[in-house]
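Researcher: Going back to the complex we discussed earlier. I've cleaned up the inputs and rechecked each line, so this should be the final set. Can you rerun the prediction on the complete assembly and write out the structure?
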Amino acid sequence: MRYTISGKTGQWEVVVGLEVHCQVITKSKLFSAASATFGAEQNSSVSTIDAGYPGMLPVINKFAVEQTVRTGLAINATINKYSAFDRKNYFYADLPAGYQISQFFKPIVTDGYLDIVRDNGEIKRVGIERIHMEQDAGKSIHDLIPAKSCIDLNRAGVTLMELVTRPELESPEDAGKFVRKLRSIVRYLGTCDGNMDEGSMRCDVNVSVNRPGQKFGTRVEVKNVNSIRFVIQAVEIEAKRQIEAYENGEPVIQETRLFDDEKLETRAMRTKEFAIDYRYFPDPDLVHLVLDDDMIKRVKDNMPELPDAKKERFIKQYGLPAYDADILVSEKEIASYFETAAKNNDAKKVSNWIIGDLFALLNAQGKDITESPITAENLGKLVGLITDNTISGKIAKEVFSIMAETGKAPELIVEEKGLKQVTDTAAIEAEIDKVIIANQDKVAEYKAGKDKLLGWFVGQVMAATKGKANPAMLNEMLKKKLS
Amino acid sequence: MTDLVDLTIAQALDGLKKGEFSAVELTKAHIQEMEKAKHLNAYITETPELALEMAAKSDLQIKKGEMRPLEGIPIGMKDLYCTKGVMTTAASHILEGFIPFYESTVSQKLWDAGAVLMGKTNLDEFAMGSGTITGYYGATQNPWKRTNDNSVLVPGGSSGGSAAAVSAGLCMAATGTDTGGSIRQPASFCGVTGIKPTYGRCSRYGIIAFASSLDQAGPLARNVQDTALMLKIMAGFDDKDSTSAQIPVPDYLKSLDGDLKGKIVGIPKEYRPNGINPDVIKMWDAGIKWLKDAGAEVIEISLPNTEYALTVYHVIASSECSSNLARYDGVRFGIRAEGDTLDEMYANTRMQGFGKEVRRRILVGTYILGSSRYEDYFLKAQKVRRLIVDEFNEAFKKVDFLLTPAAPSTAVREDEMRSQDPITVFLNDAFVCPASLAGLPAMVVPAAISSDGLPLGLQIIGKPFGEEMIFKTASIIEKAAKFNLKPHRVEA
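Model: Rerun complete. Updated structure for the full complex:
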C-alpha cells in the first residue's frame, strides 16, 4: 500500500525528490591549493583564486574528481569519462567571482540508484539522476557587527558534490531513509563526513502532492533542511500545506520555500517569476574533464565494502536476522564495533547488547559509538562471561553499568566485586537447605500446590548468595528438594 | 653615442655585453624619451625608479658574466598584466589603487630573463576597444601623423599604449594581449611588429581576463627578431593555466632565415571587401610578390565564413566578459561606492567604476546568456565559431600559411573613432578577428607606408603552433619591405 495523507476531501499521495549537497573530503579546494579543512580561523584558508582576484585561474583538484567517481560507483551510476564545468552566474557578497563553477550541461556522474528498506521490509529503489561537482560559496555573517555584514571565505571554493534524485520518494520516511542511506555510504567511502549539523551535508527537498492515479502536482522546493529529522518533518509539513491549499481551492505555485525548524513551517522565499536566471555557460577557463580508465579502475578496485554487501555478509557469516544486520551496518563505525565485539562470541547476543543496552547508554549520554565509554573488546568480553556462565544475565547488566561508568574491563569488575556466579552445587545446596529449614510453613504451602512460591524460594536463595547463584542450577535443585 | 632608443633588442644586448653602455644608461635613455612623450599617454603608470633599480641589477649580472636573454632590456607591460607591487588597473576606474601581491606568469618570465619594467602601458578599458580611447586614464595618441595633417590618430587597440610606446622609443618591446586583434591591429597602426601566438602558447595566469576563450598574450617590438626573442621568453606551459599548451617552445630565432621553397601561401579572397583602402591592396600585392620571389607558390583560397567572424566574436567575447567582470563588485578590491543595500552598492560601484563601452558589453553579454536566448545567440555563435575553425583547418590542408592585410585602413583619427558607432569601430578588426576565433597564431609586420604617410602592416596567419613558419615569412617580408621609417619624434 502506498503511503497517503488524509485530507478533508480524501487521500493524497506525496512525491519527493531530493537535492543533497555533500562537502567532499579533500585536503585542498576544488580549484585552488588552499586548505579545505573545517573550523580554521576566519579567512585564513583563502587563496587569490578563491577570492576571485583579477587574473586568477582555476585548476582542477584531481583528488576531488576521484572522490566524486568513488561516490558515483557506490550509487551504481554511470561515470562519464567526458564531462565539463559551467559557470552559474549570480551576484552575492560571499561569491567572490560572481559565478560558481559547477557542472550544469555535462555532469560527471549520471543514472544511478540506491535501495532503501521501508519499515515493512519492502525494498524501494530510488533513481539518482546525477551527481555533479561544484564549488561552495563563502559564508555571510550578518549578526557579528551591527549594520555590517562580514564575509568568511574559508568555505569559498570547497568541493561539493550535488546529488539529485528522481522524484521517486513516496513518503516522509522514504526521504529520511534515503538521506540516512546516502550519508552512511559517503561515510563508508570517506568522501563526505555527512555531518549535517556542521553543514557538510545539506538538503533541498522538492515536494508535490497529487490524488492517487492523477498527475504530479506543482513542485515546491524547500531549502535549508539540515538534519534527517528535518527532512522528514519538512516533507510532512509541506505536503500538508499543499493539501490544505488544494482543498481550500487555493493554488500551489512553483516556488522556493524556506524550512523553519523552530516554528515547524515552510515560508515562501521566491517565486518562479523572481527566479534568478543563472546564465549558465561553459567555463572558458577550464578544459573538458576527461577521466582515464586507469583512474576509474583504481578507484573501483579500492572500494570499501558498502552497507548492502556488509548486511548480506552479516546475515550469512553471523547468522543475524536482517533487522539486526540493517541496524548494525547503518554506520561504518557501528559495524566495525560489532565485528570486534563479536569475535569468537555469540554474535546474536552481541548484537542484542549493542542495539539494546549500548545504544540506550549512548543515547542517554548523547555520544556516538566512536565515543562509547565501553570498548568493543570489553563488550565482547562481557558477552563471553555470560556465555561461559561466569556471570548471569542479570549480573551482566550490573557489570555493564559499572563498565559504562569506569570504562574498566568486565572480568576485573567481576573479580573486584566478587560477582562470579556460584556454580558449586554443594554451596547452593547448603543455602537451599537453610531456607527450607527456616520456612517450613512455606514448604508445606508449596507442596499443597502453591507452585508460585518457587519464585519466592529462588529469591530467598539469591538474596542469601547476593545474586550470584547460577539461576538455572538453583531452579533445578530447588524443584528437586521441594518435591 | 648613437641614440640608445633607436637600437633593436639584439643590438642593445650586444652593446651591453661589450660594455659599450650600461643597462642603467639604456634605461635612462628610455626614461628621458618617456619624459618627452608624455602627451602620447602611452603609459598609465611609469616606473622609472623601479626601472633604474632593475637596470642596476642587470649591470651586476652583466659584470658577473651571467647575462640573461633579455638582460637590461627596457620593456613596457600592458596594464592588464598583474605586476606584484605595481598598480594594475586594466585602464579601469574600478581597479583604481589595486596593487597585486602576485605576478602574472608571463611578466615573471620576462623579469627572470632580465627585462626591465618601464611602466604599465595604456589600453582600452579591460582591453575592450580598437583605439585605446575607452580607458579611464585617457586615450593614447599614435606617434605617427598623416603627412601635413596634425590631427591626432589612434594607435589602435586595445594594446595601443604598448604599440605607441614601442613605436616612439619609450621602450624596446612591450607585452600585449590579443582577444580579437588587440596586438596586431595596433601594430599595423603604429608601424611595429606584433604576434598573437596560438591560443594556449602563453599562460593567461595573472592577466586580467576579458574573454577567456580568446585572450592570448604576445609581444610587440620593432622588428621580427626582437619579437621572436620576446615570444621565446613569454611562451611555455604553465600548470596554473588549465588552457595552456604542454608543447615545448622552439627557438624562434633559428627560424628567421631561409626561403619559402615548396611552401604554399593562401590568399583568402574574402579579405578584399568593398571600400578597402587602395594602398592596402597595393601593399598586399607587393607582399604576394615578395613571397613568390622567396620561392613560395601562391594560391587564392576562400574562407566564406569570414563575414560572420566579427558577429560571432562579439557574441562570445561579450558573453564571457559579462561573467569575467562580475568579480569587480566593490567587495574585496578596487573602488567601492556605498549604497543602502548590497544590490545598490553593486550598482553604484559598477556604474561609477566601469566606462560606457565596458558597461555596454556587459549588458550585451548578460542579455545573450539569458536562458531564453542562450541557444539562439551563444550556442549558435559557438557553432559558427566551430565552422570558422573547420574552414581554416580545411585551408591548411592546401596551404602552409595565409597572407592578408592587418587592417582595412591606416590609423583612424581619434575624433572620428569617437563619433563612430560601435559596429563601424569593430570593422577595424575584420581581418584580425578570425584568427582569434580559431586560436591560430598570427603576426603583423609593417610592410608599407600609405600615400598619406602612415604605416601599413601585413598579417601572416599560421597553423596551430606554427609560429616558426610565421617568423620565417615575417622575416622575408621585413627584408623585402625595407620598412625603416620612424614616427616623427618630439624634440625636447
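Model: Worth noting: The two ends of chain A are 57 Å apart (CA to CA).
Researcher: Good, that matches what I expected from the previous run.
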